[in-house]
């Protein structure tokens, strides 16, 4: 028997499940194991990435898989993991899609929310620092800082969307339009329902955090095209969040697109970045204006 409604038409259990991917993706562990195995295969083909530090703490580093062309566009990947887990080394599997198409592929490492004592703000700040570092240092590794894009999935899509609301000029001394576009797949863009879910057991939400890190509330700050994506076998809330964010962007006159992956769950759709003809692979290359 359903309990009282907590969010929209969802009771507490349904809302908790809607922000718990394992409830909708029973093959989660197998797919995550594929991420790691296919990332190792990508390194065997492309060679080990160059490792760079972008900030003052040990975790603030990134893996760079370089394209052969000089002055190539740059895809900065922000990984997911429910804000609690994930490492750059296990997100090398899409690297070939970008490198073969002529783009550099940079994967970020950053603190997780457990290490940050339940605070999401340090995660968001580290992602912002990384983007600013890539823009400033692009010329040193053969990148074109005028063609810098974000690619992201899950909680990484939330962090990437937060980065899009940054006042780059004021906070980091780089141009306001430093980011030229973003692909945000399977993310969360307003934290109110997340705060009401079981995720509040490990994220110490505050009113200030909810407001600052809900990108859908700061649409006026977003200055680039945004592609939102989700799979039809994702949780109802992750599907709704993408649809609502895309609709809100369009209503504000922003350039936004919505891509739906038929038959993919939350973890499977990320794997489509590994193919230039995959749902996310094609969306990413179109965003970067690559063949």
Write a brief caption for the model.
By secondary structure, the chain is an alpha/beta fold. It has 11 helices and 10 strands. Strand 5, helix 3 (95-101) and strand 6 form a beta-alpha-beta unit.
Report on this structure.
Helices cover 36% and strands 19% of the residues. Strand 9, helix 9 (236-251) and strand 10 (256-261) form a beta-alpha-beta unit. The protein has one domain (23-287): Alpha/Beta hydrolase fold, catalytic domain (Rossmann fold), CATH 3.40.50. Helix 4 (121-137) packs across helix 5 (155-164). The strands form two sheets. It has an eight-stranded mixed beta sheet with strand order 3-4-6-5-7-8-9-10, sandwiched between helices. It has helices spanning 12-18, 28-46, 95-101, 121-137, 155-164, 168-172, 192-196, 207-212, 236-251, 268-271, 279-287; strands spanning 5-7, 10-11, 50-53, 61-65, 72-78, 104-108, 143-153, 181-185, 226-231, 256-261. The chain is of the alpha/beta class and 291 residues long. The protein starts with a strand and ends with a helix.
CATH T-level fold name: Rossmann fold
Work out the helix count. Answer: 11
Average pLDDT taken over every residue: 98
Distance between the termini: 52 Å
> How would you classify the quaternary structure?
single chain
Radius of gyration: 18 Å
Shape-level CATH architecture: 3-Layer(aba) Sandwich
CATH superfamily: Alpha/Beta hydrolase fold, catalytic domain
Q: Which residue ranges are poorly predicted, with pLDDT under 50 across at least 5 consecutive positions? A: none
The rough form would be described as globular
Strand content: 15-25%
Helix content: 25-40%
Estimate nothing, just give the exact number of structural domains: 1
Number of strands: 10
Helix/strand structural class: alpha/beta
Order of helices and strands: EEHHEEEHEHEHHEHHEHEHH
């Amino acid at each position: 028997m359903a309990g009282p409604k907590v969010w929209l038409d969802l009771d507490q259990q349904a809302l908790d499940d809607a922000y718990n991917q394992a409830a909708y993706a029973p093959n989660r562990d197998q797919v995550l194991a594929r991420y790691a195995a296919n990332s190792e295969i990508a390194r065997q083909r492309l060679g080990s990435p160059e490792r760079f530090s972008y900030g003052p703490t040990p975790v603030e580093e990134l893996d760079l898989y370089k394209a052969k062309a000089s002055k190539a566009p740059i895809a900065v990947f922000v990984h997911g993991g429910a804000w609690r887990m994930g490492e750059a080394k296990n997100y090398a599997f899409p690297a070939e899609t970008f490198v073969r198409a002529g783009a550099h592929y940079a994967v970020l490492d950053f603190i997780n929310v457990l290490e940050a004592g339940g605070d999401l703000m340090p995660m968001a700040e580290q992602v912002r620092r990384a983007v600013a570092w890539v823009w400033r240092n692009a010329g040193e590794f053969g990148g074109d800082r005028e063609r810098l894009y974000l690619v992201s999935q899950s909680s990484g899509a939330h962090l990437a969307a937060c980065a899009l609301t940054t006042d780059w000029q004021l906070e980091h001394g780089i141009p306001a339009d430093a980011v030229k576009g973003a692909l945000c797949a399977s993310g969360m863009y307003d934290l109110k329902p997340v705060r009401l879910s079981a995720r509040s057991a490990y994220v110490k939400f505050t009113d200030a955090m909810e407001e600052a890190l809900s990108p859908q509330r700061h649409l006026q700050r977003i200055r680039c095209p945004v592609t939102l994506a989700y799979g039809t076998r994702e949780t109802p809330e992750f599907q709704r969040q993408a649809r609502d964010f895309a609709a809100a962007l369009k209503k504000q006159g922003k350039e936004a697109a919505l891509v739906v992956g038929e038959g993919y769950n939350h973890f499977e759709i990320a794997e489509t970045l590994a193919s230039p003809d995959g749902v996310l692979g094609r969306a990413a290359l179109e965003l970067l204006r690559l063949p």
